[in-house]
Design a protein that fits this description.
Shape of chain A: globular
Strand order of the largest sheet of chain A: 6-7-8-3-9-10
Radius of gyration of chain B: 22 Å
Number of strands of chain B: 0
Distance between the termini of chain A: 48 Å
Number of helices of chain A: 9
Oligomer: heterodimer
Largest sheet of chain A: 6 strands, mixed
Order of helices and strands of chain A: EEEHEEHEHHHEHEHEEHH
Structural class of chain B: mainly alpha
Distance between the termini of chain B: 32 Å
Order of helices and strands of chain B: HHHHHHHHHHH
Number of helices of chain B: 11
């Protein structure tokens, strides 16, 4: 049985992530209006929907970058949305040790080389030795096809390369769940595939993933489930093939009609 | 006409060995004040800027205090700060409220007006530099903090390893501008009795009715400040070249402290 990086036994029973009626607003704007979702170990859930539907906010709520105002989130059976201030710091630690996120804009540390980007949090957060962190960073960068770019700085890397460093950086923390927030949307078309290939491999290795994406091909091939969001709620969810070819809801049909038309 | 030129550029006054000694001795104080107070201001300013960015409701009082401090000392003439500290420390020592080492600070064998000058400059320029650092911190894209936090770093770790190192790089030119202003402001310390380069020139002017020693002081300032100004220009040009290539957000390029 594998153990977590903080020494607790790995979690095995029930869904790894469960959302109940998650709500989030920014001022008067209700971005999430009660989202329910369940994610099992090894699942790859692809979240699709028009911009402004709350997809990105949902991911940011799950790792508490934007704590939800209402509703509950359970990660590996433990609630991470306590309202009491005293418990919040513990919630945040618990989530950040288990959930990795990759952003649309990469957000690589601009003043650090690729390998330092992947190594830094390992030494500062997980207290790994420098040698251990470096070894891990090197092997992860090799895994995402960047063995020859270890010492390059972000501004010397293409968007696709930067995004692969960002994936390696998140993986270095040994996450149990990976969140991908439109990670190919800021890339030139010819660079999209190299990033999606890395994600495909991750999924094939059994990583549990939530992928917010506009890549319908990816959702169909790699997703175990597709969720369609609109107006801050989940409109419909189901197996990828059925969702993309025969959606039941009229709103889903209309969205897919617009996306797949061209 | 000759008399006019002589008034400002009388080489016999400038290079009279006793006069020259006095001016150079004064300039030594000017340089020491600039370097010591400059280094302390850089550190104190960064501390203030970081305190100002502390997160959460719990730490709000610290943020308010910091903002109050910065507002106050950006808005008060340094001369006034200098006079308040000098007079009050002496008085409090005489009344037995504070010990002598603080009332009449003569640390490392340097005179007390020197150390009072260091205090006043650090208090004032710390506030200026805090604002420069703040601009730098705010110019670091918010995604950097989010990425650091998402990897499990605390706010403090993210500031220390990610935000501040990037912010400092962005604000080197305006900080250098502030340093130039600071160096010029060291002449104010003459009012509490430190014979730095301006006071030395003034004393000679009073004795000889000739201003050449002050001209020499001006030249000594320029020998330091002009190369610094060129360095600032070059750094700004380099940063602009970088942002012109589509690099990160444009940095802050102007100082805010006036002399």
């Amino acid at each position: 049985m594998e153990a977590n990086s903080d020494g607790t036994p790995a979690f095995t029973n029930g869904p790894i992530l469960r959302l109940e009626n998650v709500q989030k607003r920014f001022g008067d704007l209700e971005v999430l209006r009660g989202v329910d979702m369940e994610l099992n170990r090894g699942e790859v859930v692809c979240v699709i929907g028009p911009s402004g539907s709350g997809k990105s906010t949902l991911l940011r709520c799950i790792n508490l970058l934007e704590p939800p105002e209402d509703g509950h989130i359970f990660l590996e059976g433990r609630e991470i949305t306590h309202q009491a201030r005293a418990e919040r710091a513990g919630d945040i630690d618990f989530v950040r040790r288990r959930v990795g996120i990759v952003f649309q804009q990469f957000n690589l540390f601009q003043h650090k080389s690729a390998i330092a980007n992947v190594g830094l949090a390992q030494t500062k957060v997980l207290k790994r030795s420098y040698a251990e962190a470096r070894e891990k960073a090197e092997s992860l960068l090799k895994r995402v096809g960047l063995a020859d770019k270890l010492d390059e700085f972000p501004d010397r890397l293409s968007g696709g390369q930067q995004q692969r460093v960002a994936i390696a950086r998140a993986l270095a923390m040994d996450p149990h769940v990976m969140l991908f927030d439109e990670v190919t949307s800021a890339l030139d078309p010819e660079l999209v595939k190299e990033v999606l290939d890395v994600m495909r491999e991750l999924a094939a290795e059994g990583m549990t993933m939530i992928v917010v994406t506009h890549e319908m091909g990816f959702a169909k091939d790699v997703g175990t489930k597709v969720v369609f969001m609109d107006g801050g709620v989940v409109v419909e969810e189901g197996p990828p093939k059925q969702m993309l070819e025969n959606p039941k809801q009229e709103r889903t049909q209309r969205f897919l009609g617009l996306v797949l038309e061209h | 006409m000759d008399q006019v030129i002589e008034q400002y550029l009388d080489l016999s006054v400038m290079f009279d060995s006793q006069n020259l000694d006095e001016v150079l001795h004064g300039f030594k104080y000017t340089l020491m004040l600039s370097v010591i107070a400059g280094a302390l201001s850089l550190i104190w300013g960064l501390v203030l800027a970081v305190l100002r960015q502390l997160p959460g409701r719990l730490l709000a009082p610290i943020r308010w205090l910091t903002i109050g401090y910065i507002d106050a000392f950006r808005g008060i003439p340094m001369l006034l700060v200098l006079l308040i500290i000098y007079g009050s420390l002496g008085a409090l020592y005489t009344q037995g409220v504070i010990p002598e080492w603080l009332g009449i600070p003569r640390w490392f064998g340097l005179p007390d007006p020197f150390w009072v000058g260091v205090m006043a400059i650090t208090i004032t320029y710390g506030a200026y530099m805090a604002e420069v650092y703040r601009a730098g911190i705010e110019a670091v894209p918010p995604g950097q903090m989010e990425a650091a936090r998402s990897l499990g770093m605390s706010h403090g770790q993210a500031m220390r390893f990610i935000i501040v190192p990037q912010a400092v790089r962005k604000v080197v030119p305006p900080l250098l501008n502030d340093f130039i202003a600071l160096m010029k402001d060291t002449s104010l310390v003459s009012v509490i009795g430190l014979i730095e380069v301006v006071q030395a020139g003034r004393d000679i002017q009073a004795e000889t009715l000739n201003s050449s020693a002050l001209t020499l002081g001006a030249i000594l300032f320029l020998i330091v400040t002009i190369p610094l100004a060129r360095i600032v220009d070059r750094l700004i040009a380099r940063q602009q070249a970088k942002t012109g290539r589509g690099g990160p957000e444009s940095p802050v390029t102007t100082g805010i402290a006036g002399a």
